[in-house]
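queue> pop job 88
queue> type: inverse folding (structure -> sequence)
queue> payload:
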């Protein structure tokens, strides 16, 4: 399997695409074609455990590795999840199935890919003949940072540097990052929002001076953001897995379509669901859920992407994003893979902060996707409803998705079974969840976790419970314009 970029650039192997992260032309790597999974194979997969399903899907995309190699990497990654596994389903009413993607070491869905990426990346670097150490740069809206740090900590041949928006993440998310162990980990607070951090990281990537300076230190830059193909491929697996579990349980028939609803920020997770559909998974509509930063809802409804709007901090911070990087991959498919069209739109976005797609692409988008958004009050209301009516404790991101699905069903009457991505543990957002449930919030986030645990009759995950007792190891901060300097300083620290 070869990869091309969304801006018409080079052909690369899967290993090269993963090591490089971003195309040299600034475009994103996409597979040259989508491998197909037949109905018969789906039925076989329904009888297999998650790891075997993962090896099948990943094997189609990452042909540089043997099946045995992939199986070894997948097993190591799966071993980092709790006894419930990587993507267990929880049944709600009316054919809604929540895919709980937060049973990994950092309690958010980013773990699914980031427990695997260090293995993929180090093997890929070797396969591509790369002798230098890899420096992973990450801009995070909260969850990617910790998942990357946890995945790469003390992995030989790698360094991992994370930039997060100061004041833009939850207290638990912040502490998870600044207490990270590992001599190869670096964490820097940026005095700005996520878009500032992401723009800064992209600038470092495209700065030839930076590449040369890091090169002299024996380092090559790569990315663990969802622009990296190695982040997206593992996410395709759990949509297949959810369908297989529903089929195995007799909830759907062979070939029966399900809808998929995803709380969306950088557009990686929902893009993985679209790729699953393109590979032959029976999927009807994709429901793209946003919070008050609803640039994607408007885009899906109007065909016009306009990032020139106020940025809002919300209780679902991992979706506080106005420039969704992976949308570029979707545009590439919508316009029939015209790199020229994509380049034009991306140039307009850079220059004017907005662009409008052509009528054909807009119609294709509308057929595939439905966009809806939840206000802060909607989100809190949905957390309360899920608990009160279904005894299901959900985090604010998942609540945004459940609200969007409710709106979709009311508007369209489409009541097909629907898989909803539950992207984070409610314990990561104990303050927002407690407030939504009208519980007292007069204590720190960790006391609130204990109370939520009592309420739900479950234990607070250790990854959260232990945070207040861990030493703070990272204190660096910088202005958005000084990210490269701050990174250089970090890398020079003894
Ligand atoms: C990252 C994240 C999202 C958004 O996912 P994208 O792939 O960026 O669209 C949603 N919810 C949570 C909890 C996240 O960490």
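queue> result:
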């Amino acid at each position: 399997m070869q990869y091309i970029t969304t801006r018409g650039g080079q052909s690369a192997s899967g290993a090269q695409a993963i090591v490089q992260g971003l195309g040299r032309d600034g475009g994103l790597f996409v597979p040259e074609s989508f491998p197909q999974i037949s109905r018969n194979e789906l039925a076989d997969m329904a009888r297999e455990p998650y790891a075997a399903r993962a090896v099948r899907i990943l094997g189609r995309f990452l042909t540089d590795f043997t099946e045995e190699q992939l199986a070894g990497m997948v097993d190591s990654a799966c071993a980092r999840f709790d006894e419930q596994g990587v993507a267990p389903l929880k049944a709600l009413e009316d054919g809604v199935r929540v895919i709980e993607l937060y049973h990994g070491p950092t309690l958010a869905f980013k773990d699914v890919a980031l427990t695997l990426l260090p293995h993929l990346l180090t093997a890929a670097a070797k396969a591509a003949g790369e002798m230098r150490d890899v420096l992973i740069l990450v801009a995070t809206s909260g969850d990617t940072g910790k998942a990357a740090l946890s995945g790469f900590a003390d992995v030989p041949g790698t360094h991992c540097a994370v930039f997060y928006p100061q004041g833009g993440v939850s207290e638990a998310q912040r502490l998870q990052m600044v207490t990270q162990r590992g001599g190869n980990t670096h964490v820097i607070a940026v005095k700005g929002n996520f878009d500032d951090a992401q723009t800064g990281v992209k600038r470092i990537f495209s700065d030839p001076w930076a590449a040369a300076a890091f090169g002299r230190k024996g380092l090559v830059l790569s990315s663990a953001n969802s622009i990296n193909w190695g982040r997206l491929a593992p996410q395709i697996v759990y949509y297949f897995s959810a369908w297989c579990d529903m089929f195995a349980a007799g909830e759907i028939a062979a070939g029966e379509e399900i809808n998929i609803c995803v709380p969306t920020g950088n557009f990686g997770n929902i893009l993985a669901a679209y790729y699953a559909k393109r590979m032959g998974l029976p999927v009807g509509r994709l429901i793209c859920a946003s919070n008050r930063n609803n640039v994607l809802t408007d885009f899906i409804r109007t065909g016009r992407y306009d990032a020139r709007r106020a940025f809002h901090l919300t209780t679902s911070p991992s979706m506080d994003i106005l420039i969704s990087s992976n949308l570029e991959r979707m545009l590439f498919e919508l316009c029939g893979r015209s790199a020229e069209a994509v380049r034009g739109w991306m140039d307009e976005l850079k220059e004017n902060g907005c662009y409008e797609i052509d009528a054909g692409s807009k119609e294709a988008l509308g057929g595939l996707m439905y966009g809806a958004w939840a206000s802060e009050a909607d989100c809190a209301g949905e957390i309360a409803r899920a608990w009160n009516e279904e005894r299901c404790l959900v985090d604010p991101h998942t609540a945004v998705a459940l609200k969007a699905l409710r709106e979709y069903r009311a508007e369209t009457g489409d009541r097909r079974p629907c898989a909803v991505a539950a992207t984070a543990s409610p314990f990561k957002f104990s303050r927002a969840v407690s407030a939504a449930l009208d519980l007292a919030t007069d204590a720190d986030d960790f006391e609130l976790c204990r109370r939520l645990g009592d309420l739900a009759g479950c234990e607070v995950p250790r990854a959260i419970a232990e945070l207040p007792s861990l030493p703070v190891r990272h204190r660096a901060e910088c202005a958005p314009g000084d990210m490269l300097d701050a990174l250089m300083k970090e890398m020079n620290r003894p």
